[in-house]
Structure formats: C-alpha cells, structure tokens
Amino acid sequence: MRIHFSSLSWLILPICGLFSCTNYDAEVSPSKTSAETLRATIVSGPAESDPATKAAFGVVTSSESYAQVVWNAHDQLSVFHSSGSSLYETEQGGETADFTLVSGDAPSGNTILGLSPYSSTASARVADKTIEAVIPAEQHAFSETFDPAALLTAGASSSPSQMAFYNVCSGFRFTLSESSVSSYASIEFRGNDGEKLAGPVTITRVGEREPSAAPSSGSTASVTLLAPEGGSFEKDVHYYILFAPCVFKKGFTLSFKDSSGNELFKRTCTSYVDFQRGIFPSVRGADHPDHLPAIKDGILLSRAGTANCYIVSAPGSYKFPLVRGNEAKTLYGVDHVEVLWETSNEATAPTKGSVIASVASNRKYVFFETPSTLKDGNAVIAAYTDGRIVWSWHIWVCKDYDPEETRQLYPGKPKAMMDRNLGALSANRYSTMANGLFYQWGRKDPFPGVVESYVESGLGTFMATTLGPAPGVVASDVSTGTVAYATEHPQTFISSSQTNKNWMNTANHTLWASSKTLYDPCPAGWKVPEAYVLDGNNNHVASQEAWTEVTFQTSAGRGLYLPLGGTSYAWYPNNGYINADGEIRMAGMYSCYWSCSPNGQAVFALELSQSGSTLSYFPNRYGKARVEGHSVRCIKD
Predict the structure, then answer these.
(1) Which of 91, 395, 442, 484 could form an SS bridge with 379, CB 3.0 to 4.6 Å?
(2) pLDDT, tens digit, for every residue of 317-337?
(3) Selecting from 2.40.50, 1.20.58, 3.30.70, 2.60.40, what CATH number does the domain 299-397 have?
(4) Three-state SS for 155?
(5) Residue 292 CB partners (closer than 8 Å, separation 6+)
C-alpha cells in the first residue's frame, strides 16, 4: 500500500538571518507578523499556503535567497490512526514524496496523524490531535542544515492518501568566527532562566496552521550540539540547534566545550528573546565576545498596530517598529535613539533611567527596557538623524493597566472611552495621579501635566521631568509654527499671541480627524474623540462619539463625576491647562478635553469650570484655542 504525503517547499529562513548583522545589533521577528514572511508554499495537499516545513535543505534559490525544503530518500514517518500506529518510508524523497507502509496496520478512521522523523517511542491521542514525541537534547552538527533527527514536523488528515506536515520546532542558526573553532567538540545552548527546551514534548493542534510543542515531564533545560561526525566545527558555516518554541525573558547562553567536556568559554545574551515556531533567528560569529551581548529584542508593542503612544504595564524588554505613528513605512536614516524626558507625574523628577532603563535601535525597531521593578510614569523616546529629532514616541508606563479591560461605555454612546486621561497613572477620584498629560491641538507629543489637585491661585506646577521643571516655550512664527518644527522639537511648547490663538502659523485642520491620523496621540486601537458638531447657525448636525447628551454629576472633589451604572463612574479631574503663554492656569478650577473636530480656527471640546462649590460643564464647547495645552481622553477607534 502506498500513501501519498506532501511537504511544503519553502522554509521561513532568510539566508541573511533574522538577527541584524550590522553593528552587531540583533532582533527577532515578531510572532504575529512573521507569518506574513513565512514564504512557505505547499506543493500539493489540502491546505495551500499553510506554513509547514520538512527536515532538510535543498538548493538555495538565487531569486528568493530562501532554502528549499524537501523529503530525503529513506525518510520515515510515524503514522497514528484509530487502529494503532504504522511505519512508512519513502524511496525517492523530493518536494512531494510517496511513502510506503513498512510495518503496522494500514490507517483507518476519520483522523490520521503523522510525525517526522519516525520514532518508535512516540505516541498519540488521535481524537485530540495530540502527539507525544521527543526533541533530542543531544544533536549532531551538519553544515548548512540541521540534524535530521531533531526537527519535528507533524500533520493530520482525514484522508489516507495525503497529508501536509507542519514544523513544530524553533531553533538557533549561527556561524562561528574565532580562530580556535577547531577545538570546539560541543556547544551547549541554555536559557538564562532555566527554560525547558528539549526531551519529551507534547504536540497539540496537529494539522492546524500553528501547532504547539510544549515541553512535558522529563524535559531538559539545555541542548548540546556535537561537532560533525569525524570532523570539527568550521568558521563561517551555518549550524543549527533546535528546541521547542520558547521565550527567554533573561536571554540565553552558549557554552563552548572541548573533547573532555571542559568549558572553554561562554557567550551570553541577556536580552529578552522570543524564539517562535518555524522561525530560526540567526547570528554570525556566535563565539565572538561582542556578538551575543549585542542582541536586542523585546515584547512587540505594536501587535495591535503602530502608534505614537505605547502602553507598558509590566517590567521587561520591549520593542516597536521604527515608523512614524501609524504609518507602515520604516523610518530610514535614524542613527540613534534617546530618552528625551521621563516623569513619575510628581513634583520631584524621577532618577534618570528609573522609568525607562535603556533604549537602543537598529534599522527596523526601537528597543527599550524598564527597570526590574516597574516605576509608573511617562517618557518620550526620540529618534535622531545627524543630531536632529525626526520622530518621537510617548511611552506610558502604568503597572497592570489594560485600557481594554477598564474601558467605559457611556450611556447612549456606541464607542467606549478610556477610564482615564492620556498619560494618567490612576482613574481614581481626587487623586493627582489622574491628572494626566497636556497636548496642544494636533500635536502628537505630550507635555507634563499639573501636580496639584487644587491651588487657590490656580497657578499650578508642572510635573517634574528629567529634562527640567517645565517645557521650553517658543513663539510661533513662519519657522516655528509648523508641523516640521513641532516634530523636531517635541519638548517645546509653541506659544502664540495671534488673535486666532493657533500654535501653527498657517492652520491645518487635518492633524487630528475622525479617522486616526499620523499625528494622533493615542495608543493603537484608540483615537481622539469626535465632538457634538454644530453648523453655522448652531443647529445640531450629528450626535457624535463623545460626551454630548450624557448626564454628568458634579463632585465636591474638584472634578466631574459621570455615573455609568451601579458603582461604576468616569472621573474627569479639573486639572487646569497650559495657557497660550506656556504657563499653567486654573489648576483645580477648570479643565478641557480635546475633540478632533475643528470649528473654524477653534475646536470643539468638553469644558469644565468650577466656581466655589458649583461646577459647570459644556460638552460641546466650540471655541477652544489650539495653542492651549489640554487633556485628551481617548475613544475606541
């Protein structure tokens, strides 16, 4: 009996590698977007374009620079079915191979599972599409490919005549560069936090686009690669170490050993790195003392999309694409990145590096780390080219904060709002941490907010930053009152004495709009809300997303309390504003919340004003000057 199996003909492995080899910076491709770059094509079978791989390389194609994957002659498969298990073997191999039954019963039942390479100790729960297998903890090195016994692939089918196999492993691809390379008898790969990598694994979701291989009882925390049989490692040749997909939160270590098992030296990466199924991150010169320490990676913050603001809610290493706002195009020519300023939203500036501990970049990503103990606050990271800021991003650090989990739906409104101001570290009534940051209308970058909940004079104090006690101020003119100047000077407040009170010399009404724009300051999935818009005769045009026709209640705590039903509420603090001259005014007596809806030279907004114990609110105030610094409360995009 002959059963026809097919493997996929392309492997997700750029020959140049997924680590950057320029300046020894390195990064790992993100798990959610990497599927778009898999480039795997099924030759024949039930699921065209599924990402699946087989065990060995064929010829590198000149047009694509990817390695073709084929079946080898005499490859063997374990096949599991309702009657038991069987052994199959192919004589010819190839892109699509015919496998012949060698031992066991012919497949029966509606579900058939396959495992490559064949293992006499593997088992399966066919109904659950689960296979118990082993990734060898000791592997043999082969030039430009992996140990054929180490790369597990699995498949499932309802047909006894064909099956597509999916790769379930990840791994590390590397070359060696040191002059002593011939003395290496083995290379051990180990996670720095004791992560389980090889030995027994449980493969679930067999036959689906993203099967999972998780270490099970008896798994090991290291994988050892032995020098090629009858020889030694060579310089500038690619080798592979395979293991279960794993996130190394504290990085990993390579130990180079001699023939007696003595350790010659170690090379360590201390960065967070994510090794994903089907992805083989690559480093040239892994034994060079500078290369592994230079690896940069982190949790991808842009899974929901790129933006000008990213939220961090737990300590760790992070990255986001080097792009402008929600633009898809990479920002080329950046030579370095820096933390421009940090604040803990308090009157005393935090110690430099206490909010964002470090920052770096390569040609694709910005990488940064927080201290191991997270400090709530806000920071701005700026990208430079030849000493000039070309873009900047707001990092909003707030422990355990998830805007999706705490979002609030106002009565009668179709879209949810955040439960706090943009940049706020709390949503609690009366807390100064609820004040958040200030924005000039149409600008993407924040300014420090006010520290106090109330001052009798109204002249509040800016949150202290590592840059200084207050933002710099420059008067608007033909050179400073432009988007280009604002982009290059994100820390500078652009003042105005013009009658139209616009920070721009020539008005631009599209910087913020009903659709999320390049300059929108909110995180991905959120935007500046629209307002209740009036026509020229003050007739209602449309009841839009935000505050109009929502019943508010005043509060003795110098803010506005909006009941949402039960014990839930939305809190809008009276946190003052930045006047046209760059100074804080009316702290504890007044606040304003931007919309994205212009009204001539002015803008619609929610305005709160308190006199004594009386607080008045104007949910469709139509005359707010764009030069002023006001709060933003983001709405779902």
Answers:
(1) 395
(2) 999 999 999 999 999 999 999
(3) 2.60.40
(4) strand
(5) 254, 267, 268, 269, 283, 286
